[in-house]
Specification:
Low-confidence stretches: 1-13
Distance between the termini: 34 Å
Number of helices: 3
Shape: globular
Oligomer: single chain
Strand content: over 45%
Radius of gyration: 18 Å
Mean pLDDT: 88
Helix content: under 10%
Largest sheet: 14 strands, antiparallel
Strand order of the largest sheet: 8-7-6-5-4-3-2-1-14-13-12-11-10-9
């Protein structure tokens, strides 16, 4: 069962799961907000797209998340982030790239995955303007994910028997290294979206374990219907959080039966 694979150290051959949630052509638009304490300000837009592609001559999915601040927000925090993940049709990570321009910093992270004899290997590079490129490589008997492919995987989780507090441990490629992380199911919530509707949502939080400390990286809300559509993403920034809030969708695989009103 897909729910237990990340916690049992199962061989990679068991890590592929059936994609039950999305299809090529799905396109979601969002509004981007920055939050400082109780204050929230709209600062730009974001989008998430799924398309068909090939990787090493095999059919695959390309998932792309973009976030851009507007000119007003650029004066105090400029963000131009593009996160791309290519996964197999069974949602196995194949390639990941994050190009991020945030304030004066510009970084490009890449990860290339391969699989052999029940193990996963990832070769990573991280380029940072003014300091060059660093490289790393890691092999693990468990699945290794990145920030985009883990959302794709989580969308196909069987949720009927999920309980609040349930945890899924897995290594995650972070550009510089592979970090130990945990995805925690937080339960259900009714969520008001920017399209004027309210949705039943499932809530997940991802944390990393660094130097003996747990750090919350992202909380994401997905629709409580077969699409498991990402409705909201809360991302930790050095000054607060960035909130990506659902506005519209096209190309969804199923009707949005999670809509309450």
């Amino acid at each position: 069962m897909a729910l237990c694979l990340l916690t049992t150290g199962s061989a990679w051959a068991q890590c592929g799961v059936e994609n039950t949630a999305f299809q090529a052509g799905e396109s979601i638009s969002y509004e981007l907000y920055f939050n400082w304490g109780i204050l929230a300000k709209k600062v730009g837009t974001a989008s998430f797209r799924v398309s068909s592609t090939t990787y090493n001559s095999k059919p695959a999915f390309r998932m792309e998340l973009l976030a851009n601040t507007n000119k007003t927000a650029d004066s105090f925090f400029k963000m131009r982030d593009t996160l791309t993940s290519i996964v197999s049709q069974r949602l196995e990570p194949l390639y990941y790239r994050k190009g991020a321009e945030e304030e004066s910093r510009y970084t490009v992270e890449e990860a290339r995955y391969s699989y052999n004899a029940g193990t996963a290997n990832v070769k990573q590079s991280r380029y940072k303007r003014d300091s060059g490129t660093i490289y790393s490589e890691k092999t693990d008997s468990r699945c290794i994910f990145d920030m985009v492919s883990i959302m794709g995987w989580a969308r196909s989780l069987k949720t009927d028997n999920l309980k609040a507090g349930q945890r899924f441990d897995f290594p995650l490629a972070s550009g510089k290294q592979v970090e130990e992380g945990t995805l925690i199911f937080k339960g259900n919530k009714n969520l008001d979206a920017k399209d004027g509707h309210t949705y039943r949502a499932l809530v997940y939080t991802y944390i990393t374990h660094r130097d003996g400390k747990d750090s919350e990286i992202i909380t994401f809300y997905v629709s409580d219907d077969p699409n498991h559509l990402p409705l909201r993403l809360d991302l930790s920034l050095k000054f607060g959080t960035a909130r990506v809030q659902f506005k519209s969708v096209s190309g969804n695989r199923y009707p949005l039966t999670s809509m309450i009103k």
